[in-house]
């Protein structure tokens, strides 16, 4: 365990240090070109500060694919802004200019038009915002003054500065060797395989634990590994987008052959391992003396060998061959199945069946195929929708409430920042707008925290720059002093104190002082820029509070109700799902859509809760973060249980239709499924009563009674044991001579699937109970 965590720490440290060094390299290239480059080049780069900004935006935490994508976004932004700016400056004439109010209005209108389309990436929007600010502020400064060059050429200088920053980013990712996302993903996949192997070894040991204390001690050892695996998967997911720009042909072939990307396959594995851990955590240890120890050891040893073979493939997920060619597994094609005969005495424990069901899904390609088919169906549906109804979809997205709010927020904030910034100081007024241009994000954010970290980062970066300007008067020494600071602040982006916003601000704060020349006294420039940054942040806070006055704590409560309504719909859909195969296809597709919606709502609730934790209380009550964190955990478990319930429903449906040797169990299966659906229907009724806004007061009075009544309709065995399992021994004795090996495996599959389904539904009801308890704690916290 320690070796895996240490390996991940080493890889994370190397990746972060590598990113920091490449960021410093990109800034050094820009500095060397603008300070020591040939006069022909220096004469075209009149906005060196924006070259630094572009390089930092593109190269931060980037691989070569990310950098190529960032260069494309910079090109798209330049095409949007520069040609129209040149036309406008040409119309104004050689001595024409803009007044402060007119320039602010132009910035607001242009920012609205850039921010409104959804097809433009956020990076392209940020660069375009910065170019708009520079063009308009330059037009204000040049108003009525004679220039050595034509006014319509000044936007070209902005484009050249942008191009220099993009070019420096590409060179920094190529020297001394290409920083490919493929190599990073390959390393992370290897570490993930080691991590998963250690986790599964712990889970197998916990399965044999003789008491709850020993089992919980082993599970606690797996917790750090589980958190590490989630972080590795997140990193792989991020790098996966960059891989598309490095080798786009591999991804096209992957889509053509209906194969999964590394992140998709690992996410499927992670889900199965979460189910295995949940089965161990939520159930007591069984007495191992009820089964032969040697047989149990052989069973678990065989499962361990199969797991090792499966996890060996994870290290090859990032290679193009593994994504485009079918894999040969040899003996691995034989999937392990829970051997019921030697383990029959422990089958009364429903969690055992769910435990081995998750292992089967982990090792079985059918789980990955199911996951892939759902993802590919979603992508194809989106593709068909975009082709058939492209224009209608574009119009609807263009006028959507969220798009209009984001565009209006960018427009108003940039317009106000430019207005007050230019009024205060015409020469340095652009910094108020540039501060906001590179910091806009889509969706809600913790505005006070962001403004605080950005202000602090700008301050410490400016102070660092002023100190080194005082100590060294030679430009060469200043540039050398800048490089370690860029590395330090690049690492600072991973800290909780400053984060991404504060780290970037600290980098830029020093860059604009140490990486330029002929700007006047450093002290005066630092003070002027800090003032402009304060003006920009004030405009940012004012607009955010004006357009989104609702606190994140209030949003969390409202979003919780929306999530519970979606949960009710999912359970209702499962409770009415038919078991005839010809009727299940449409039903399961509809159910998956609702489950994806519920999963996205839970993820959004998690983000809102994180924002509410960072939000200052002021005169409000403190945010009940502990209750919301527990509630999000229970909802995440519910999402997982719904996935397993749906998967087992599908498997039962297929077995009941295709199997010809389990006819004697057909009526019993229908009876079991009716009991399961009755349990789910009780949960639906409970959710409707407990979470209805109209009957909130009534539900509060009767909630204790509802918690008791919820037991009505539950499984006859609280551990999820099926009556089908209890009849297995008798059926096996009666048909021992007639039933062959294939028939026996079919029966075992059905028994395992049914027992796992019973455990999942019992766990689902338990998680719903825990969710309601957390909700009641939140209500009591807010009402008292």
Automatic annotation (TrEMBL):
The keyword Transmembrane helix applies. GO terms for cellular component: plasma membrane. This is Uncharacterized protein LOC105161462. InterPro entries: Memb_transporter_dom. It comes from Sesamum indicum (Oriental sesame). Residues 416-541 form the Integral membrane bound transporter domain. Its main location: membrane. The chain crosses the membrane at residues 20-39, 45-64, 71-92, 98-116, 157-177. The keyword GTP-binding does not apply. It is a multi-pass membrane protein. Keywords: Cell membrane, Membrane, Transmembrane, Transmembrane helix. It is found in: Cell membrane. It comes from the Eukaryota. It holds the Pfam family FUSC_2. The lineage of its organism: Eukaryota, Viridiplantae, Streptophyta, Embryophyta, Tracheophyta.
